[in-house]
Amino acid sequence: MSILVGFGPDTRTGSGLRLGVAIARSLGEDLVLCCVVHDSFGSPSLRDFSGVDDDWRREITGLAREALAEARSRLPEDLEVQTVMRVGRSVPQILEREARDRGCRMLVVGSADGVVGRIGLGSTSDRLVHSSRVPVALAPRGFDPGEGTLSRIVLAVDPSDADAALVPGVVRVLEALGTSLTVVTFAVRSGTRSAMTAFRESGFYAQWRRDAVRTQRTILDEVRAACPEVEADAGSVVEGDRWSAAVGGLEWRSGDLLVIGSSSHAGLARVFLGSTAARILRHAPVPVLVLPRGRGKAARREKAR
After folding, report:
1. What is the model's pLDDT at position 200?
2. Which family does it belong to (predicted)?
């Protein structure tokens, strides 16, 4: 299997490339660099018979070849690397199809312009995290692990049995990477003191927290049963008065990979970010892997009721 890193001829950041290298090194697998040229002139209604579009194609294709050559030159010589250029109207579709056709373990992309150290979704990455049938890994802007590899998976879950459906995908990642696992739930409540006080005094928060801990234990039990050699622990509930405070409240480490799952309302074969996952992704200070949701034991039990 391999890791596919997708980018365009005009990509200015190497964060996705560096994350791809870190993942490939951690897995001991080869890397596929895929540069996609967006060709809107492929539509008959937009075809230019004057030949201008042909000149454009030649120029942009040349830029793509240069981008691939530059990307390859920045990679370690001991890493097995393949390069491929594709042309088409839908960049996300082409990247996902390339990853599926090659049987790639995951598809890696960088961040659009935004805050350094955070993930910024552009048109391509946003489409991928809402439609890909292949796990999608996203690198924060400016991400640079140096010579490091991935050492811990942080799985973010809701206090719901449905998130146990992520276990098969997480197990595959853990078996491949050989990392430790921490399961965590992020809690965000109203920033007003009176609202937080009322929420706590109502008793609802205590039950919500118990549900979160129970879900974490259920997931850990299933992971340990599948991977008894994996070091796994519950990171409990990390709360804050806003998402940035809650996500930032976890003690993040160098070598962390945050894993979130697709929405429970999405089709089982595809990724689709729910609102909670999207907020966590936006504030994550580490790379994020978005997994399509599978049918975990708890999810099957829930469906059978």
Report:
1. 57
2. Belongs to the universal stress protein A family.
